[in-house]
Amino acid sequence: MDGNLKVVRTEVSLSAGKRLRELREQMGLTLRDVEISSTTLSETRSIDEFIINPSRLSDIETKGVIPSIYRLYVLSVIYRADFTELLKLYGVDLSLTAADFAICSPIKTHRLELPTDRGTARFPSKIDPGFNLRVTTDVSRMIQDWGSIPMQYLDELAHKQKYIYAYVGMEDLTMYPLLLPGSFLQVDETRTRVEEKKWRSELERPIYFIETREGYVCCWCSVRRGEIVLQSHPLSPVPARILKHPQEAEVIGQVVGVAMRLGEVRPAPAPAVQEQPQIPAVDEGEPKEVRRH
User: Fold this and answer.
1) Staple 248 to which of 43, 73, 208, 243, CB 3.0 to 4.6 Å?
2) CATH topology of domain 2-92
């Protein structure tokens, strides 16, 4: 296996070298011209590693020798080429940085420095005019066109086939105060099976993104005998509902990420006080009030 990987890497390096040679020839430059230019830049910036002598450049172009970051940068300057595109020739794609973050999980909270001045990302440039901020919506269905902006981390929004993104309507208080109106949600479409067990806290219990005949809703769920219970947060004024499953309610996926603004929270309106008939005790997690459709 290691031998095969080495062959692949060699082929990549040879292909990259060939492309660098093509760029040089397109500029009408000789090996000696590149050496002179690199020496000038080296003296200007006081960085000796910038110098590229003819024999080294020849090895890079024809023998699969991988240039250092200094020399690759110099070549990008001399050839008027995008440095990130030259990195791609050697298999280093900076647009995948956000996705590659998943390989490491730092234990300390830290600040992310967004490289907003490098590369491009796909971003919704045209939204369906029917998009209503007051209603919970599947955002991916509302995007009519994508454009490019220099914010590579947003590229995840367009390319993660496993996920869709949702917006909690400003009038949707189903999971208030756990999920605030105006929140953006990341939903895993592969997790459509409702988990049934005892949860130690409300933070552990999965929240699902549900599509009903009236629209979308995010809530806790329980499925039994062809019915699905759409349970709101105990502090929410929204009553629970029982619908036929999957005829009247379909589980789109499980909420796995939340982005919401804090500090501008308005209190949920208090529900009207009504005399409620006494009901038998139920297991933890059962809705206290249920409305059947």
Assistant:
1) 243
2) 434 Repressor (Amino-terminal Domain) (1.10.260)
